């Protein structure tokens, strides 16, 4: 395991989009990370034969970009493994759990979604003694690994009201994922070709994410005519199709 910190970020690099390290998405992700390490965020890559086999990113809940309420938990943002069948995912999850214990947290949270690959897989967390305790629209599941009898984390319940705020095409986002720029560009290009004006809202802090995000995912959402268009990257052609609908 290699922990990425500010001092080795430039030399070790991020996992996602590493083949395009000069892209705006990759550069924005690095800048985002530099502002998060002092908040307790951990970014850990697991290596095999000096090549990255996967990574995990997690942070204290008070700084998390996931839309979940609770206190004294760590929240896993991302878990991705490209060399499967060797237990690397479980190793990274156990590292997070151990960190949570050493920090005297009440447990670890992760949000999953069986309908998309843009969140971690649910099954590997169930194998590591997480339990599902809540669900929210669009297939999101709240899983937790608790150490004691502390209060459960929970999703908000005002999802419909959040969509009512946005009749015009609106993209709400953070730079937590390096693919956000690509996702944004595809929607904006499609919208321009349909003569639809796009407003982009960059979340400044967790409070804005908790209040405004249209889904539990938190880092990206596209709304048009009070309807969720997407919470993850779309191709240009898919974006065109959904905007026409």
UniProtKB/TrEMBL annotation:
Pfam families: Acetyltransf_1. CDD domains: NAT_SF. Gene3D superfamilies: 3.40.630.30. Residues 2-166 form the N-acetyltransferase domain. This is GCN5 family acetyltransferase. It comes from Lysinibacillus contaminans.
């Amino acid at each position: 395991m290699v922990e990425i910190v500010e001092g080795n970020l430039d030399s070790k690099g991020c996992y996602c989009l590493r083949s395009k390290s000069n892209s705006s998405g990759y550069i924005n992700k690095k800048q985002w990370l530099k502002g998060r390490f002092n908040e307790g965020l951990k970014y850990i890559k697991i290596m095999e034969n000096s090549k990255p086999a996967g990574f995990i990113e997690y942070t204290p809940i008070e700084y998390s970009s996931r839309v979940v309420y609770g206190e004294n938990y760590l929240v896993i943002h991302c878990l991705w493994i490209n060399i499967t069948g060797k237990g690397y995912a479980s190793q990274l999850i156990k590292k997070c759990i151990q960190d949570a214990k050493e920090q005297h947290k009440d447990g670890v949270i992760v949000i999953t979604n069986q309908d998309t690959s843009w969140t971690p897989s649910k099954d590997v967390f169930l194998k590591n003694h997480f339990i599902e305790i809540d669900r929210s629209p669009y297939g999101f599941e709240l899983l937790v690994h608790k150490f004691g009898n502390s209060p459960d984390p929970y999703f908000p319940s005002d999802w419909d009201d959040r969509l009512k705020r946005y009749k015009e095409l609106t993209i709400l986002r953070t730079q937590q994922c390096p693919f956000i720029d690509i996702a944004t560009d595809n929607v904006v290009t499609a919208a321009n070709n349909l003569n639809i004006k796009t407003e982009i809202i960059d979340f400044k802090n967790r409070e804005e994410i908790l209040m405004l995000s249209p889904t539990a995912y938190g880092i990206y959402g596209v709304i048009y005519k009070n309807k969720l268009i997407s919470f993850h990257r779309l191709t240009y052609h898919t974006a065109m199709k959904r905007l026409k609908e």
